[in-house]
Design goal:
Length: 439
């Protein structure tokens, strides 16, 4: 494949088949920032070949305007706004509006948006029966998959994905109801009564209220914890075409019910290689136990015969640092200080693990460093959130990105059902053998 050159229709890549000497021109599509893409849509028609890119390491699946990541520079921006500024100066409702509608809301728009989200936080009363079928020790992500998917049973006949108003309502309902569902999953696991949301609390405070209040006493949400949680939700809101977002897009490309599509995204996020890593980090830190055992676990992480990986380390896109991990590490200190936690052994262990790993040639060569999941669990734990709820917390923030990406896809006139091809390596052709003739 030769470098680009210009043709009458703009810049193109030329593909040379050396055997036949045939040249194929593939258009180049320019990004507003970041890598351009080679438009491969005509490749099969022109060459009879597919591309081959399992894991999609070099494949752009769509056009998007939501999130830009520069993996080399450790840049993350939502609609052009750096994540550092959004985390420091914005709040999660701002970011939800920004992702969904492309702009930070004016004061009036924000008031209207927050009111709409607030007034969709309650669940249909019949919905609470779903939870009673689960064992009390069911993993919250299993409950989240089922419950969010069950929303499609309540909102199917009234959801026309081609109606802008129906898309708006579906997006707002999901952002509003996912925290309520997550809090109910927690209360159910504790055997405590479900707590209804309150319309006088902000988004993060409402979630903490639903998690920790009970009918027997007053509960006042700690504003510092609510602010810390709000910032964590911002940091988890969206992240380009990651595994769970791509799952939502692929499911949604068939025109499926958006609630069911978000449930599919939750299922993908649950994996320990993805959002499930925050839970796995805490289990790993617990297994390491003390700093003397760090070298043993680093050796295991390097051992190709050992399936152990350093959870919370590495990233498909970031090759120097995950900007979210840096912000979360600072938030750790803030939350622990607010809670009067003088020494948190897990944080000390995590920071020592980071220090040693970042000086280790293996981790330096493979560009492995803490990602968003490395520190988040330590904050959740300090806030009293059980480890099993950690990935559900990730889903709380990421629901904003999932619904925004789904909405962007449905509104894209070029949207087509996603249907990848394959490299077939199976039997070429065989003919049926009756049972009595088989060996
Ligand atoms: C998230 O995509 C996103 O944007 C995701 C996310 C989001 O916001 O949506 O950022 C959220 O999922 C963060 C990642 C959380 N996962 C973990 O912390 C689990 C541990 N990390 C790894 O499983 C891994 O780093 C991934 C899954 C994150 C990335 O995997 P890749 O891009 O497929 O990289 P790879 O597995 O090919 O690894 C490259 C090399 C391999 O060695 P070689 O085969 O080249 O010899 O690095 C090694 C890997 O063995 N490696 C690790 C490692 N991660 C990669 N070795 C030890 N410990 C690790 N954590």
């Amino acid at each position: 494949m030769t470098a680009t050159h210009s043709s009458a229709n703009g810049p193109v890549f030329t593909l040379l088949d050396k055997e036949s000497g045939h040249e194929f021109e593939l258009p180049l599509m320019h990004a507003s920032i970041g890598p351009d893409v080679i438009d491969m849509r005509r490749l099969y028609a022109e060459t009879g070949c597919f591309t081959y890119d399992p894991g999609y390491t070099s494949t752009g699946s769509c056009q998007s305007r939501l999130t830009y990541i520069d993996g080399e520079a450790g840049i993350l921006r939502h609609r052009g706004y750096p994540i550092e500024e959004l985390a420091a100066d914005s709040d999660f409702m701002d970011v939800c509006h920004l992702l969904l509608y492309g702009e930070l809301p004016t004061a009036a728009e924000k008031q209207a948006f927050e009111d709409d989200i607030t007034h969709h936080t309650m669940l249909h009363e019949q919905f609470y029966y779903f939870f009673r079928g689960f064992r009390r020790d069911s993993h919250p992500m299993a409950i989240m998959c089922a419950a969010v998917g069950a929303l499609s049973a309540f909102y199917h006949d009234t959801t026309d994905i081609h109606s802008p108003e129906h898309r708006r309502i579906a997006a707002h309902r999901l952002i509003a109801k996912v925290p309520t569902i997550a809090a109910v999953a927690y209360k159910y696991s504790m055997g405590q009564p479900f707590v209804y949301p309150r319309n006088d609390l902000g988004y993060a405070a409402n979630f903490l209220y639903m998690m920790y209040s009970n009918p027997c006493e007053d509960y006042v949400v700690n504003p510092v914890l609510a602010r810390a949680l709000d910032r964590i939700l911002i940091l988890h809101a969206d992240h380009e075409q990651n595994a769970s977002t791509s799952t939502v897009r692929l499911a949604g490309s068939s025109g499926a019910n958006p609630y069911a599509c978000i449930a599919a995204g939750i299922a993908s996020l649950w994996g320990p290689a993805h959002g499930g890593a925050n839970e796995a980090v805490l289990k790993m830190l617990g297994e390491i136990g003390n700093r003397d055992r760090i070298p043993e676990f680093l050796d295991r992480a390097k051992d190709k015969d050992d399936p152990f990986r350093l959870m919370g380390f590495g990233h498909r896109v970031y090759r120097n640092h995950d900007p979210r991990a840096r912000i979360l590490r600072e938030s750790c200190h803030e939350v622990l200080e607010e809670l009067g936690v003088k020494d948190e052994p897990l944080l000390d262990l995590a920071m020592e693990l980071e220090r040693i790993a970042l000086e280790d040639d293996y981790f330096i060569d493979k560009k492995l460093f803490p990602n968003v999941d490395f520190y988040s669990g330590i904050i959740y734990r300090a806030m009293g959130i059980p480890v099993a709820m950690f990935t559900a917390m990730f889903a709380l923030g990421r629901t904003a990105g999932w619904v925004a990406q789904w909405k962007e896809m449905i509104e894209d006139p070029a949207m087509k059902i996603g249907r990848p091809r394959q490299l077939y390596l199976g039997e070429v052709e065989r003919h049926f053998v009756p049972l009595e003739e088989r060996g």
